[in-house]
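User: quick one
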Amino acid sequence: MRSSIFTNMVIALLLPLTPIVMLYAYSNQTSSRVLTEEIVKAKRTQVETFVGQLGQMFAQFDSYQKMLYESTEVRNLAYPDLLGDDLLRFRTLKTVSEEINRLAGYGRWKGVIAVVYPKTGMVIKSNSSLGAVPSVLPDKDGFWNYRTKANDGAYFIETISSPAKIAEGEEVDLTVVAKVDEGEIKSDLSDIKGKGLEDPFLYKPGYSPIYNYTANQALIREILPELQLIEHAGSYKPLLIRLKNGTFQVHMEMIQPLGWYLVDYVRSVKSWRPLSETR
Amino acid sequence: MIGRALHLFAVMVFLTLFTLIGACKGVGPFAAGTPDASEAVSSEGEDGAGVPQTFVTLKMIMPGDESARMREFVDNELNERLKKELNLKLELTYIPWSDYQSKLELALSTGEDYDLFWYGTPFVSDYKTKGYIQPLDMLLQKYGRDLTANIPADNFKLDQIDGKLWAIPSQAFTSAGKFTSVMVRQDLLESVGMKAIRTISDLETFYANMHAVDPSYYGYLETERGQDVLWRELSDRPLTFLDENQMFAVNENTGELVNYLESDLYQKVAHVRQRWAVMGLIDKNLVGNLAANIDQENAGKLLFRVGAVSRAMENLQTAQNADAAARLREYYLSPDKPKYIAAPSNEAYMIPAKARHPERAMRFMNWILQSKEHYNFIIYGIEGKDYRIENGKIKLLTNDQLMYEWMWRNKKYFMAPESVDDSVVQDMMQNDDNAKISRIFGFHFDQEPVKKEYAKLLAVYNEKFVPINIGIVSYEKQYDSAIAALKKAGYDKVWAELQKQYAAFRASQPSHAGQEE
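Assistant: Done. Structure below.
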C-alpha cells in the first residue's frame, strides 16, 4: 500500500516533467544548431566579403590595364616616327605617365602599373623603385600569375601585349603590366585578422601559402594536407579538421581572378561537431 | 529640534554632493588648476602612464614608395609599440613622388579622413588659404613638449601665418642655400680626371667625358626645378626664389622683388638648358617620365642632380645599392658667393582640417622626438636587426629605407651613417657657416586675393614655360607667345599683389644689418 502511494507520487511527478524535459532537450538542440549555423554563416560572410574585396581589386587592375592597352598615346609611344617633334613626344610621355600614376593611385590598394616598350627600352611605371617591374616579363601574355624570384620577391603579375604575345620569344611593340606584391596581400591579411577573421592565409595547392604577418605557421602547415584532400574531393563547404591539438572549423573560398583560396580556421567547440567531418 | 537637525543634514548632504561633483569636473575650489588656452583642445582620457584610453587608427600620407621592410616594420614592431605607448595603429598611405602633389591635394580637397601628412614649407600658406589644414598652437602646447624642446623656436616662425602655427617644421638642421647646389657622383667625376665642380662648364665637361667612356650614363635629374643652381654663376645679383613654381625671386642685396620670367637671367638659364638638351645631358627620353628618371638614379646611372645640403648623405645608400663604389658630394657653383637661409626647415608636417584624430597626430610627432631611442627606432628600425651603432655612426643592415631620415633630422639626435665620407658630413655640418638670413624668411604669399588668376597662371606656365625650362623648346621660338599667354592669364595682377604683400611684410620686419638697402 505504502509502495503504491510512493509509486503513484513518482508517476504523478514524472508525468508532467517528461514533456518539459523533452521540450528542454529539443529546445537546447535547436538553439545549439541555430547558434552554430549563425556562427558559420557569420564566418562565411566575413570570408566572402574579403574574397570579394580582393577579387575586385584584381579585377580593377585588369580594367586599368585594358584601358592603357587601348590608349592612343600609349600605342603612339611605341612608334617614335609618329612623334617626330620633341614637344609632342614630351607631352605624350607626360600624359601616359600621369595616367598611369592616376590609375595606380585610385583606392587604397597598391599595385604597380607599367607600360614596357622592349624595342626602345623605355618603361613608364607608377612606382619609381628599381625592382617595381621585373626585368624579365612572363613568356606569354596571361592573367594573374604568381611568381617568386630571388631578386624581385614574390608577386602576382599579368601582362597584355601588342601584338599579342602567345608564344615564348615573340617580339612585341609594347606590354602593359599590372603587378601586386605579395607584401600587399600579407599586409591586408594582417589587417583583416584584426577585424573578424582568426588567422587568414592564401593558399593554392603546389605553392607555399601566403601568411599574414602573425600567422601560426606551424598549425597552418598541419592543416594544409587536409585542405589538399578536400580540394581533391571537390568540396569547399565549412568543414572540421581534427588534429592532435584540437578540432578546427575551416572556411575557404576561391579568389576567382587568382585561382588562390582564402582560408581561415577557427578552433571548434563541442557544439559544432555535427558539421561535416573529414575523418 | 528634529526638524532643524534634518534641515541641517540635508544642507550638508547637498554641499558634499556639490563639492564632489565640482572636484570631478575640475571646477570650483578643488579644481586641479586654472583653465587655460589649451582647454580649447578636446582632452583625451589617459591611463596612469599618460597613454590615451581609446585605441585609434592614425592615417598618414607619405611620399615615395614603401619599402618591403618598412611595410613589415609598420605592421609589426612599430605598431606593436605604438599600441602600447600611444594606443594607436599607424596606417601609412604612400603616394609616388611623381604624383605626390596632385594626389595629396585631391585627398585634402575631398576631405578624406587623413590625420597627418608631410610636404615642403612653401605649400603651408597655400594649404592654409584653401582651408586644407588646421592651426596647431593648442595641440602643440598640450601634446608637443618634446617638439618644442628639440626644434629651435625660430624654426616655428616659418610656419606661422596670421599669428597661428600651421605646420611642424620637423627638420632642425643646417639649411643655407638648400636646392641651389649640385650633388655629383664623386667617384665618376674622379674617374674622368676631375676633382670638383665649380662652374657650369665643369658640369658639361663631366658629362661629355663620362658619356665618351660609357653612354649609358645620363646627366641631370631635375628639369622642372634647379634653375637657381645656375643663378649662382649666371647672375651678378644674389637671388632667392620666392615661390615653388619659380616665377618670382627676391634680390638679397636690395630686398627688391624680381620678375624672373621677364628678366635677362631667365633667357640665360633657358639657353643653358637648351644646350644641355641638345648635347644629351638632359635626356629627352626621360623628361616627362619622372618614375623612370628616378629609376635611372636608383640604377646608378645619374651623374648629377640638384643638391639639398645633405643629399650626398641621404642618397648614398641608394647609389651604393647600384654601385658599391659610388660616392656622392655636393658643390655650389661660384662657391665664394654667399648662401642664404630662406627656410631653416623645408619639411612641414601638417594636420588636415578634417583629421579625425588631431591630438593623436600631435602625440605621434612628439613621440618621435621624445628620445634618441624613439628617433632611431622609427628612422632606422630595430637595433641589431636593421642597424648597428659603430663608433658613434649608424651602420645600416638593410637596404630598405624606413621613415625618411631627412624628414626628422635633428641636430640633437643626428648620427652620420658609417658609409658616408667624413668630408661629406663636414660639408653638411659647416654648410650654414657665414650664411645670411634671406629677405624672404617668414614671408608667405597669400594667393586668396588673386587665386583665380594664379590658378590660370600655373596652367599657362606648365603648358608654355616648362618645355622651355627643360630645354626641349627654344627660348627664341616659344618665349613671346608664352609670356603673352601668361599676361593674358593675369600675370600683372598677381605680380602687383605679390609686390603689395611683400612691401607690407618688409615694413613689418626689422632692418637687416650688414645688407644693403
